[in-house]
């Protein structure tokens, strides 16, 4: 009953059953196998679902929670916590009886620690939070954030020790959660193959994305890494072999013969997966995979029946669900709470603005990550409900449960994921007779408490601000990182087999005044009129958002405070970018007026150019203050992203196939990456040079100093 004290400041004393029976106003917990029958379910193993069933009796003098097993008793307590109603300093409960059980056995979430790592105590908090929403499995992706005994080169400056990982595993178990190790193979392994010690394991020598599917040393390394994880994860029966986006299986020259012998690239993929999974099975683990390209329907029969497929597709034209079932392979219903969105998930969707262009460039570099985002017009929660309810209604698979994913590839803070995690997992418990709006409102009350103000509006505004943040800059192929060495269709599908540059955010450059008369070759504001108009509308909305977040930080439950402070840091980052656009317009205005006055009043013209240069420094200072404030908030939860610590060094090399923005920088500056690479520093240098030439011509003083635009720490 620790949570009663923590959440509501209620102190509950323990009594013996005999004494409790004679005492009014008791909470009685009863564990009695077979005491709570369940009705029809969609789960494949009803006996497993019975273990999670419970009954609550709420009366005037006491509360009784009865369950068949400890898991059910735990979930009954979580429901009790969610039923408590608060009104000022008074708390109350409804009266009546509830009998409840899950529709599906497993409700997994994917926790992405590839590009950051939660502090140890914080990870425990996240586990506890997940258990409150009846989540009972967490697939934990750590990449180099675990201290592998047999793969030391990949271990990053901050990484959990085996003892810490076991402690987290045990802590999760006490909260009825399986903490499931997660490793990628054969694709998504640049965190391994970027290291020279493992370069010989690549499918292609110049590509760090993909393991060779025929090199026995790959199996040896993978199984050693899995052994290290399993040794630090005792008590869990599952493990995740993340096999998605294995683009190049069978395509390198040294794999083609084996693929042909087996019957195709999909068959070679199945052969690779079977080798690793069968060894993991021998170690006592049930193995999750992603049954994806290059696997074909006819290849499913070559997979071992003990696998669990984490990506169900029961579409109208799809026949794989039935084939998995025929093969004896159970499945999870995969649904995404976030995909490639920056800053904040698309819980509420808004149409693109008409000034947005450039998103269609380099379509060959659009990955199946992006293609799998689906239709987000209804928002993420509605999308989760449609996906899960449709899959269950199709009755094409023996479902183990659901997996709700939110990817860290865009560098979001996981506090932004809880609405999707909680509501999606609730659908795995019971998806019937519930709407997305009802689930959303239940989450708000449970997570933030009864005193919040228009929190749904805050989520709407955050969704809108994040989408405008993405849309407010143009996208063009730029050269801010090394080029992509292949596409999702294969390494040999690009035009002329040439590497291609990914899409980067950019804005049109400010005009530089001429040295002779400060004339300009364009009017920046005129070319961005619609963008600026919309930015000012979003700035007004940002005012509303900040007011809502500040109000709710004061009124939310204590456990919701940090979540809202993270949201506030995101809103402030969006605000700084909105102000940047408006300040660029202001700089353009100073330059335009300076050009007009250059012949009649050179002194005033130079003063206006100085104001433009001063405004650039104001932009830099505002950016740096906002950035540093955000980092201080996020680092309360995260270990620092650094090049060196604890005697270890991070190898700073990007993925050759995936353009994951957090990998572009060692530190947190990926959040302001596009600003740092906007050539405002170059503009300031060239403008100051032109200003000084014009000033010298007119007998006026020189300007010294520099903007230091790319210095994210500088404030002056």
Range of strand content = 5-15%
CATH topology of the domain at 106-434: TIM Barrel
CATH superfamily of the domain at 106-434: Glycosidases
**Low-confidence parts, pLDDT < 50 over ≥5 residues?**
358-374
Strand order of the largest sheet: 7-8-9-12-13-14-15-16
CATH class of the domain at 106-434: Alpha Beta
Total helices: the number is 22
| Number of distinct beta strands | 20
Shape: globular
The helix content, as a percent range, equals: 40-55%
**Gyration radius, in Å:** 28 Å
Can you describe this structure?
An 8-stranded parallel barrel has the order 7-8-9-12-13-14-15-16, surrounded by 6 helices. Strands 1-3-2-6 form a 4-stranded mixed beta sheet. Residues 358-374 have low confidence and may be disordered. The protein has 716 residues and is α/β, with parallel strands linked by helices. The protein contains 22 helices and 20 strands.
Features of the shown structure:
four-stranded mixed β-sheet; eight-stranded parallel barrel; 716 residues; single chain
